[in-house]
Design brief:
The protein contains four helices and eight strands, in the order ββααβββαβαββ. By secondary structure, the protein is α+β, with helices and mostly antiparallel strands. Strands 1-2-3-4-5-6-8-7 form an eight-stranded mixed β-sheet, with helices on both faces. It binds coenzyme A. Residues 41, 43, 95-97, 102-108, 129, 133, 135-136, 138-139, 142-143 line the site of coenzyme A.
């Protein structure tokens, strides 16, 4: 097999992605700081997810799951966990920008990067948002996600999650 025949790496499988000043890379030694940072912001804080529980989620081996620390200019800015393949495209299990990194276009850059990664193999991006998380719902609407429907009692009894879909491309014929 020549280099020209080598299939490209599957989506999200590289250790490090550099998007100018934004890096998506290994969590590594930042796991405690990242888990504490995410656990401190809603919806995880409101749902009572401890830093320890968040840390456990970040390190537990799971199939088809890709986890990244987001670093802006080398400084920890947030966390991204993806499941792929999910359903004709990836599922964003967790996206969390630390408060100082919010509303600076990072989620848009992450979603655009995801779309490029799956350009040949996926036509959708999926995620869930808690119904009371108005800020995130507004952000996802601005990013082109459409609310598909409610999933009551999915995460917390009495609380509803909303399933969302962003269409990247029409499905292939046939
Ligand atoms: C929700 C979240 C992921 C959005 O990421 P972000 O990097 O702040 O979003 P961006 O700066 O890329 O903004 C993307 C678009 O959403 C809009 N937007 C972002 N936050 C918004 C808000 N609070 N209200 C209204 N619109 C908002 C932006 O204006 C932008 O649209 P535009 O480009 O048309 O102006 C991030 O704020 C976050 O992590 N919040 C805390 C944790 C959380 O709720 N995570 C989601 C759990 S499902």
């Amino acid at each position: 097999m020549t280099a020209a025949d080598t299939p490209p790496l599957a989506a999200f499988t590289r250790e490090l992605y550099r998007l100018d000043d934004l890096e998506l890379g290994p969590i590594g030694a930042d796991v405690d700081a990242l888990a504490a940072g995410v656990a401190a912001i809603d919806p995880w804080a409101a749902n009572g997810i401890s830093a320890e529980a968040m840390r456990e989620r970040m390190v537990r081996p799971w199939p088809a799951t890709f986890r990244f620390a987001l670093r802006l200019d080398g400084r920890l800015a947030g966390y991204l966990a993806l499941r792929h393949p999910f359903m004709r495209g990836p599922y964003i299990e967790t996206i969390a920008l630390f408060p100082a990194a919010q509303r600076r276009g990072l989620a848009r850059r992450v979603v655009d990067w995801m779309a490029r990664e799956v350009a040949d193999e996926g036509a959708n991006i999926w995620l869930c948002v808690t119904d009371w998380n108005a800020a995130a719902r507004a952000a996802y609407a601005a990013l082109g996600f459409v609310e598909i429907g409610p999933a009551p009692d999915l995460v917390v009894p009495g609380q509803t999650e909303i399933f969302l879909r962003k269409i990247l491309a029409s499905p292939p014929l046939g």
